[in-house]
Design a protein that fits this description.
The chain is mainly α and 235 residues long. The chain has one domain (2-232). Helices cover 72% and strands 5% of the residues. The protein has 6 helices and 4 strands; from the N terminus they run αααααββββα. It has helices at residues 2-77, 88-97, 108-115, 125-136, 138-160, 193-232; strands spanning 164-167, 177-179, 182-183, 185-187. The strands form 2 sheets. The chain has a two-stranded antiparallel sheet. A hairpin with a 2-residue loop joins β2 (177-179) and β3 (182-183). α1 (2-77) packs antiparallel against α2 (88-97). The protein is elongated. It starts with a helix and ends with a helix.
């Protein structure tokens, strides 16, 4: 009887050890698969951030051009100008008031990472917190971009249309271009100077805010890409 019990106990232990080993192997395989999937998402996220960096810098430069244009037009308005003082440079600076941008960042990979429940597989806690801070902070900048477009399209463009006959960029003609693909206005009479100065000062505030915002975005993306390179062992 003792031999039977002993043999049964050994067999039970053997089954238990085998089952535990099988579960450990299965769990280890699943964890490795999750790590591989996580790294694939992080690699795609890294590529998206590269686009965010270039787009953010482009937007920052666009708003910097807007800042210069607004500041110059405010100064010009204060000089008691006449229509005879309107030249190509003034028209370009007035056109720069109209600048507004859009940041088409892709947050799909970050949302996939967040919703996967595998964020803990990222080894660097700073990377986790910085990713959250970066993506959660984009909402305000997007709102300000939309508001800048609204002011441009609903307020300033209708105002300037009363004093101009063209706002068009001829592809290849840099004389008709203010910055990148933003067109230059053609004035046919002197705008209301008080209103023009008001709009220039209003957009100066928008442009300064968004220039600072995109400077922060580019800085955060630079740091995130550096952290991701270390996480993914990208040379």
């Amino acid at each position: 009887m003792k031999n039977i019990l002993a043999r049964g106990g050994i067999e039970f232990l053997a089954v238990l050890v085998g089952l535990s080993g099988s579960l450990w192997v299965d769990g280890n395989v699943k964890e490795n698969e999750a790590i591989v999937q996580n790294n694939e998402i992080l690699n795609r996220l890294y590529a998206n951030l590269r686009a965010d960096s270039s787009d953010g810098e482009w937007n920052r430069k666009a708003y910097e051009r807007g800042i210069k244009g607004c500041a110059r037009i405010i100064e010009w308005c204060d000089s008691n100008p006449t229509f005879d003082s309107v030249d190509d440079s003034i028209e370009k600076d007035i056109s720069a008031i109209l600048i507004a941008t859009y940041f088409g960042n892709n947050d799909e990979e970050y949302n996939s990472l967040k919703n996967s429940g595998q964020m803990h597989l990222i080894k660097n806690n700073t990377l986790i917190s910085d990713l959250h801070r970066y993506y959660s902070g984009l909402g305000w900048s997007d709102y300000m971009d939309r508001d800048t477009w609204r002011v441009t399209e609903e307020e300033i463009s209708p105002f300037l249309s009363n004093y101009s006959d063209e706002l068009y960029y001829y592809r290849g003609d840099n004389k008709k271009r203010v910055f990148s693909n933003y067109p230059k206005i053609n004035l046919i009479r002197l705008p209301n100077i008080e209103k023009l100065r008001f709009y220039a000062s209003k957009k100066l505030m928008h442009h300064e805010h968004q220039s600072r915002a995109y400077n922060r975005i580019v800085s955060r993306v630079t740091k995130l890409r550096s952290l991701l390179r270390k996480e993914l062992n990208i040379k």
